[in-house]
Amino acid sequence: MTANARRLTPAALERLVVPTEPWLSCEDCFEAMDGYVDALLADASTPAPAMDVHLAACPACAEEAVSLIILVADDNNNDPEPALRRIRRLA
Amino acid sequence: MGDQAADVDRATASAEPRDWVAALTTPGRERDKALRDLHGLMLRAARHQVWRMRPMLGNAGHDTCEELANQAADDALATLLAKVHTFGGRSRFTTWAYKFAILQAATEVRRQAWRKREISLDDAEVWPDVHAGPEQHAEAADLATAVSRAMVVALTGHQRRIAVALLVDGVPIDVLADRLGTSRGALYKTLHEARTRLRRHLAGTGHLPGATEVGGP
Q: CB distance B173–A60 less than 8 Å?
C-alpha cells in the first residue's frame, strides 16, 4: 500500500457504484429543479426518474433540492416531509 | 433569520400570482419595485442556504454568514436577470428564482469552507476498509475488494483521480471544479463515465447484476 492509499469505506463504496442512468447532467438537473420541487410538494409520488437518479448520485444537487423544498414549503405552509422522505430514500 | 424582513420576504413570495417577468422587463416604477422585492427573496433564499450549511464554516459568526448571503444574493440576482426571459412557467416564479440563490450560496459556502484546505489529486490506491465493523459482512467486503481492483483496471488515471477526490475524499464537486478550472457539469460527466465503467466491470466479474447501462451524455 502506498503512503497516499485511501480506505474504501462502505459509504464511499456505495457512492462509487451508484447507477447514473438515465443520464442527466448537473446543468439539466438545475434547469428542472424548480418544476421538480413544485411537483413533489403537490404530490410526492410524481414520477421523475432522471431527476431521482441524478439526485441519488450528486450530493451537491441533492442538498440544493432539499433546501429548495424546505424553503418553498415554508412560503406556502406546505408539509415538506413527504417530498423530503422521497429524496432521503434516494440517498 | 426569523426577523421582520424575513416575514416581509415570505409575504412577497406567497403573494403570487404576479407577472414577475413583465414587471422585471418593463422599465418604470413597477420594475424598480419588482427588483427590490426580488432581491429580498434572493436574500431570503441565500440566508436560508448559508445557515443550513453553517456547520461547514467552523466558527464563522453572524457577520460572516450575512456577508456570504448578501454576496450570493447579489450574484444570483444578476444571473437570474440575464436569464429571466427563459422562465418557462413550469413552476412558481419564486421557486425558479430561489434555486439561483440557493445554488450560489451553497457554492460560496463550500468555497469558503475549503479555501485553506489542500486537495490531493494523486493517483492513489484504494483499499477496502478492514475496520468497517461487523455490519460489513462478507459479501460487502468482497464487493469492496472487487471495486478496489476495478478502479485500477477499468478506469483511466484521470477518472480514478476525480472519483477518489469526489467520492472517497469527499471534496465538494464545485470546489474541485474551481481548483481545476472546470465546471461541476464536466466533473459529474467524468464521474458518470467512471461509474459506468466500474459497474460494467463489476457486472462482468459477477459482483453486480448484469450491465444494463448503455449510452450516456
A: yes
Q: Is the pLDDT of residue A90 over 80?
A: yes
Q: What does the pLDDT look like over A39-57, one tens digit per residue?
A: 999 999 999 999 999 999 9
All cell numbers assigned to A73: 414549503
Give the count of alpha carbons within 13 A of B81, CB side only: 18
List CB contacts (< 8 A) between A71 and chain B.
44-45, 48, 98, 102
The answer to whether A88 faces chain B, any CB pair under 8 Å, is no
Which chain A residue has the Cα nearest residue B90? A35
Which pTM does this prediction carry?
Answer: 0.89
Report yes or no on A66 lying in a domain: yes
Range of the domain at A38: 20-90
A83 vs B contacts (CB less than 8 Å)? none
Question: Maximum Cα–Cα distance for chain A, whole Å?
Answer: 55
- Which secondary-structure segment (H or E) carries B136? none
ipTM of the complex: 0.94
Inter-chain CB proximity B135 and A10 less than 8 Å? yes
pLDDT of residue B16 exceeding 80? no
Under 8 Å CB pairs connecting chains A and B tally to: 155
Query: Is the residue at A37 inside a domain?
Result: yes
B151 vs B202: CA distance, rounded Å: 10
A2 occurs within a structural domain: no
